[in-house]
Amino acid sequence: MTSTAGVEACDAVITTGSPALLSRLVPQLPPEGLGRLAGLRSLGAVVLTIALHKPLTGGYYWVNLPKDEFPFLALVEHTSFVSADHYGGDTLIYCGDYLDPSHEYFQLSKDQLLARFLPALAQFNRSFEPTWVRDAWLHREPYAQPIVPVGHSQHIPPLATPLEGLYWASMSQVYPWDRGTNFAVELGRRVAAAVTDYAVHVRARGGGVRAGERV
Prior knowledge:
The protein is α+β, with helices and mostly antiparallel strands.
């Protein structure tokens, strides 16, 4: 890799973002490649982390909830698993959901979501009151869970994009597995091997970085 005036020249580049991000970063991809990316659907994630002055669930860690009865999919009392002593005595709960990126939760403010979620907490503890809340933090990610329809294996883009030297590795390519650190590591090794092979061929043709420099 060489660098001149803020511009870096590389044998190859690996991008690990979402299909939509790749489309925005590299609009010069051929129409067929852009169309394949547009066809990869996914859900986003919304998580409201709330610090409480008191425990909520009486020791439960993870509770999956019916979507038609609660404003979120899962309630996780983190401090039922890791002691509140590590968090200044706070009870930490996560109220999370997987949603289409167009869902209103991606537009509402932290306070608006807190107002939606707090009434549901009384169903876990009849004594709960809003005064238990010390603070809250909102985290959102539009690309959190790929949607895998029938025939998905026929539409997974290869690691090498149509642009020479550009590689893409993402959650959308770990099929038949689901998200997971072990599968991410395996995918990372595959794309690293592909890039290494590509760099060897580039140098064999007399191109690429100078001797002694890293790929």
